Amino acid sequence: MKAAYYDRQGPAHDVIQLGDLPDPEPGPGEVRVRVHVSGLNPSDTKTRGAFGGRPMGFPRIVPHQDGAGVIDRVGPGVPEARLGERVWVYEAQFGRAFGTAAQFTVVPAAKAVVLPSNVSFETGACLGVPALTAHRCLLADGDLRGRWVLVQGGAGAVGTAAILLAKWAGAFVATTVSRSEQEKVAREAGADLVINRQTEDVAVRVKEATLGKGVDRIVEVNLKANLAIDMACLALDGTVSAYATDDPAAVIPIPFVPAMQRGFNFRFMLVYTMSEEAHRQAVREVTACLEAGAYRPVIGLRLPLERVIEAHEAQDSGRMIGKIILDTGV
After folding, report:
1. Which terminus of the chain has a smaller tally of CB atoms within 10 A, N or C?
2. 79 — alpha (psi -120 to 50), left (phi > 0) or beta?
3. pTM of the shown model
4. Are residues 255 and 301 in the same domain?
């Protein structure tokens, strides 16, 4: 099979190779997916770049956690009825050497989720990390109907997913952006209020929109930078769910008395360590959102697998709006 891979960590242009590798075979409880589209996430490039000093888990890695394609082979214990299923794949490379940046990937059967007939492979490859992360941030603390949500960084992959899922779940959504082109993306995703954090006072705008109450949930991409704003925006007993950081050594000093008096909650989450039940709930509800036609991700860059280095460099630039996907050529 054609695959992208690396044998050592470092900059994309130094370490990523493209070549032929043996076709993988599924073991017990596994399926093989012929990958049509592979999705790229920041965690993929951070793993390649040794973010936080984390070493390689395997001598050779085929990157990328997300993708979509068709099951073409099943391992022992998996019903043959699954052959030919259109699926979206999540966490393909978590705890494994080979992810979706290849023409085939092998995953546990539960991580190949039936893709509704009304959903494209392109959209399927945009799920995984962003959708499951956004779901956990939004819905770990119960129903969202009629509640206000603030999404910090609404034009990113997780931010856009959070807007889409929150609107599907019946919430009112405020979001922050830093550039005019990001504002367009956030509005098209369905945000009720879009705030340019460079030119506007986020807390003032949020309090105006919520009639002084504040928001019930915050989906946070950079808690260290936004802590004061988040605390000024939260309603009584509100929750901040933080899912990312630019600094793995970041220390977050939370003012105890104000947080205690208002009953604030701070949740820190990583998609890869979510419980099995949290994964199952997220998969069910993301699929329901797909079936309703309410999940419309923004694709910022689409390239063939042969241009995987360019894709990784675009992700590392921090300037991309929307998800980066790669066609495998199958």
Report:
1. C
2. beta
3. 0.94
4. no
